[in-house]
Amino acid sequence: MGPEAGAVPRRTGIVGREAELRRLRAFLTPVRQEEPPALVVLGEAGSGKSALLKAAAEEALERGFRVLRCSGHEGERELAFAGLHQLLEPVLAGAGDLPAAQRRALLGAFGFGETDHRTDQDRPERLLINLAVLTLLSDAAVRQPVLLLVDDAQWLDACSLDALAFVARRLPGEPVALLLGVRGDEAPRQFGEDVVRLPARPLDDTAAERLLDAQPRPPRGQLREHILRQAAGNPLALVELARATAGSSPPAPTGSAEALPLTARLEEVFARRLEGLPEGTRRVLLFAAAADAPDVPAALLAASAASANVDAWSVAEEAGLVRLESGRVTFRHPLMRSAVYGSASFAERRKAHLALAEVLGGDPDRRAWHMAAATLVPDEAIAAALEETAGRARRRGGYRVAAAALQRAAELSPEGRQRARRLLDAIESAMNAGEPLWVEKLAGGVISATDDEAMLMAAKLWTGWALAATTRQKAALSHLLPLAEDVVEEDPITALTAVGHAAFVVYSTGDDTYRRQMRALLARIPSDAGRDFDQAWTRAGCDPFEARETVLELLRSCLADPDRDVDQLTILGGAAWVLDETATAIRLLGAAAEHLRAATTVGSNATLGQALALAQFEAGAWEAAWASAEEARRIAAENGLEMAGRSAMFVGAALLALKGEAADARKLIDQAVAGVDPADSRALGARARWVRAMVAGVEGNHPLEYELLRRLFTVGEDPRPVHYHASYYGIGDLAAAALRVGKQDDAARVVDAVRRQLEGRMSPRVLLLVRRARAVLAADEEAEDLFGAALGDPAGETWPFERAVVLLEYGEWLRRRRRTSEARGELARALTVFEQLGARPYVERAAAELRACGVSVRGDDGASRGIERLTPQQLQIARLAATGLTNRQIGERLLLSARTIGFHLYQTYPKLGITNRAQLRDALSSMGASS
Predict the structure, then answer these.
(1) pLDDT-based confidence at 603, cuts 50/70/90?
(2) Averaging pLDDT over each range in 12-26, 337-351, 443-457, which range is the top one?
(3) Cα–Cα distance for residue pair 588/605, rounded to 1 Å
(4) Fewer CB within 10 Å of terminal CB in the chain, N or C?
(5) Residue 252 pLDDT > 80, yes or no?
(6) Rg for the chain (alpha carbons), in Å?
(7) Model confidence over 608-631: pLDDT tens digits?
(8) Does residue 294 sit in helix, strand or coil?
(9) How many whole angstroms separate alpha carbon 285 and alpha carbon 329?
(10) pLDDT tens figures, 483-517
(11) Three-class DSSP labels, 652-684
């Protein structure tokens, strides 16, 4: 058969995957700036993923890549960093050149040394480990480009996946590519959207026929039709069914395999291939199937002791079931391993696991897992060993591994209370791993394991937390609020904890019914019950205006105690942010972030990061806000914290909109709200409408701008906020948009309603915005006094952008009344702020007004335009480089590799009209963008 047009080169031996191979070749091209540097091949078992990865590896080697490989194994999922160690082993010699802290963390994760326990909270060094991987790969890529190739990534341990996702998000600019093969149709959730997906779909009929024709004994007639139907385009199924049925008649169409899913059908086929094997061969295969990759040497040793037949392995290899090389056994396909293990009786599997446990006496973690696999009945000794394994995994950052070990330990615990205790410990690890659904399942186990009231209450609270974390808002509130109601009289502290969990959900949903229930509960909880920071957040989050003065007093009392841990600082920072104590919020949340950096942890700081980004955005620290939001978004994706990620995307979209990047802002805010029911997330919905309104304004679509802002409030004679907090911050923009489309009367009704609703209870920020709205809509005789009141309060300087907009509008008002000399001062002050922030549409508007006043504006000659072409990250890197920091020092601050920093600087120079690093400081200074 001659080659078809566009067919794959003959050397690959792959049939029907021409398009996929072309895509992989394109992925390996040197320049791919427009797409993520990670690609995942998705498909069911036997779809040819491994063959495609092998072909990609061969192509990469021909192009001069260094190829680093690893494969996930089902049993290794409980072994922290096992996959990462396998992947990096060829370049680990370069670990000696890593910064000392990174080197200690990485080698400690691989069991070559002890991690540096610098806190009493048993925190892992996950961030340092991930940075060490990034630095190691970046250094390796200096000599030649690197391809990371990971097969069966669905079985890779969670710690390794976390590290690879961390690296993948920081690869742009590096000659490093990441290629994964994953069974199923979903990429590992740690990667989020930052990966290209290449599905290995079933072969079409023509390709399936070609593959059958390529077999040693191609099936014909009804047998061929039956195989094509049964295989459903799966390449491995086509090959194996052709081999298994060679020379036979087609089975009856009503056989048991007919209705089974494909994987089960293939396992049945493989199991049939075991039937004719000698007993000794089946026995040694079972050892290999029970062992998985890290225990293969032990499996060989144990199998040798169990079988005197030295040819047993050779028989298995000749049958095409395994490959033997360099003292290791590899099953030709994972389904072969499943068939071997599944076809053995429990007694046979138990005997194999016990033998492996004996050989692995020097590895307590692997020994504990094999002992656990060898028993069906409770065993306290094994449970205790697994609990110790969990402790070691937790210290090395393996929260998911720790949770799995504790869960299995609980299953083996003879006594119910002990079982419940271990499940509660597992819950804490699962929570730190960002696995709320797992938390919920474990909490259900506690409820069935004990009647201890304290443990049951803890489990119920964790269930509520899990419901809230998975955005099942109504379910969370229906669980938490009745729980608080039941215990509020006899146990107000527990009631406060439940209401505190509910406060996050109530703020997100903005549902007035649930909010009234919360307020009623809080009225029955003494103000001195429980922890002061829980009191502050719960009351602020529930009622940021009505309870403002009371909560401010409580917040000040909390701040008098400097000895606060990260969680407390985060909760207090959230309370301060809701109350518009923005500077305090940044101080508290920033301190929490510094604590986390010192402890080098990840997992729970996405919530912190998005809150910090919000506060920084409002305070005018836009570059810091962008960096915080991007990092929060990445970490949220890595840990399944959906709402934190969406909030971080809002900050990014808001910044893009105010900087005039309308298309990018629209794309990001659409991503933030995708799949969200507006009724279940009024806070996010209100903020999304505001961003879209800003985009419409940038694009000159002022009717749409007003419509979107008007939808922040209800219609009718007494407009109410759609969200009891977020809606109010659009009131100034609503009034300004109304002026542009002739809707002043409608907007005035909303402004008057807001004044009535918040009379005497506005924060200085809301007061600034309401005064702005009134001034914009007022008649001449009132407007000047209102503008003066808005600008006369020094507290408004806390929110420089919002104050600068008032300056701009006041300047415009003055110029329209031909008071140009007065207008110049207000407009110049506004322009300075807008230029510092990079708010291009507002820069252009203020500059145009100044020119109308007869003022020549700096940058009219185009000298400052280069700064506007920089992305926020490029500007941040340029400023740091201008201070004299090296690429590596900048990378350590921004969690990027030195090569990535160099890549961004290389793109920055031509935009600024310079050619080298030495010119950065003067260039930025001349454009008003110096640090």
Answers:
(1) very low
(2) 443-457
(3) 14
(4) N
(5) no
(6) 32
(7) 889 999 999 999 999 889 989 988
(8) helix
(9) 9
(10) 999 999 899 999 998 998 889 889 988 988 899 99
(11) HHHHHHHCCCHHHHHHHHHHHHCCCCHHHCHHH
For tokens 């194994």, the residue is: 73
User: Does residue 165 carry a pLDDT above 80?
Assistant: yes
Whether residue 768 has pLDDT greater than 60: yes
Q: What is the 3-state secondary structure (H, E, C) of 726-744?
A: HHHHHHHHHHHHHHHHCCH
Residue 537, both tokens: 């957040």
520: enclosing H helix or E strand: helix 512-524
Nearest to 578 by CA among 555, 596, 562, 609: 555
The Cα 572–Cα 585 span in angstroms is 8
Number of H helices, E strands in the chain: 46, 7
Least confident of 203-212, 267-276, 660-669, 813-822: 267-276
Residues 6+ apart with CB under 8 A from 639: 190, 433, 434, 602, 603, 604, 606
- Single-letter amino acid, residue 409: A
For 850-891, the pLDDT digits (tens) are 888 888 776 544 445 556 667 777 888 888 888 888 888 887
3-state secondary structure of 464: helix
* Cα(276)–Cα(290) distance, integer angstroms: 21
Q: Is 66 helix (H, G, I), strand (E, B) or coil?
A: strand
Q: State how far Cα 46 lies from the chain centre.
A: 30
Residues in the chain: 931
Q: Is the pTM of this model over 0.70?
A: no
- Residue 206 CB burial class (10 angstroms; 0-12, 13-18, ≥19): exposed
> Whole-number mean pLDDT of the chain?
83
pLDDT tens digit string along 894-928? 767 777 788 788 878 877 777 778 888 877 776 65
All residues at 6 or more sequence positions from 196 whose CB lies less than 8 Å from its CB, including other chains: 27, 35, 36, 38, 39, 40
Rounded Cα distance between 749 and 318, Å, is 85
3-state class of 240 per DSSP?
Answer: helix
Tokens 């921004």 sit on residue: 894
The dihedrals phi and psi of 659, each to the nearest 5 degrees, come to -90, 0
> Measuring CA to CA, how many Å separate 463 from each of 119, 139, 722?
29, 45, 29
Query: Cα(564)–Cα(545) distance, rounded to whole angstroms?
Result: 26
Percent of the chain residues past pLDDT 90, beyond the cut: 38
- Condensed to tens digits (0 to 9), the pLDDT of residues 367-399 reads 899 999 999 999 999 999 999 999 888 777 677
Q: Please check whether residue 154 is in contact with residue 43, taking contact to mean a CB–CB distance below 8 angstroms.
A: no
| Residue 112 Cα distances to 105, 156, 237, 841, 881, angstroms | 10, 21, 42, 55, 36
DSSP string, 851-904: HHTTPPPTTTTSTTHHHHTS-HHHHHHHHHHHTT--HHHHHHHHT--HHHHHHH
Query: The tokens of 386 are what?
Result: 């697994």
Residue whose entry in the numeric block shows the structure tokens 């094994």: 382
Contact 891, 901 (CB under 8 A): yes
Task: Place 763 in a pLDDT band, splitting at 50, 70 and 90.
Answer: very high
CA 797 to chain centre: 34
Among all chains, which residue has been given the structure tokens 């990174």? 102
d(CA 236, CA 257): 16
- Cα–Cα distance, 198 to 180 (Å, whole number): 10
Give the C-alpha distances (Å, rounded to integers) separating 57 from 30, 173, 787: 15, 21, 67
867, 912 in Cβ contact below 8 A?
yes
Residue 184 DSSP symbol: B
| 70 three-state secondary structure | strand
For residue 855, which phi and psi values (nearest 5 degrees)? -100, 130
Among 668, 722, 714, CA closest to 691: 668
**703, pLDDT greater than 70:** yes
Q: Do 180 and 187 form a contact (C-beta atoms < 8 A)?
A: yes
Q: What pLDDT, on the 0 to 100 scale, is given for residue 255?
A: 37
- Measured between alpha carbons, how far is residue 423 from residues 366, 412, 432, 444, 640 in Å? 21, 11, 14, 9, 21
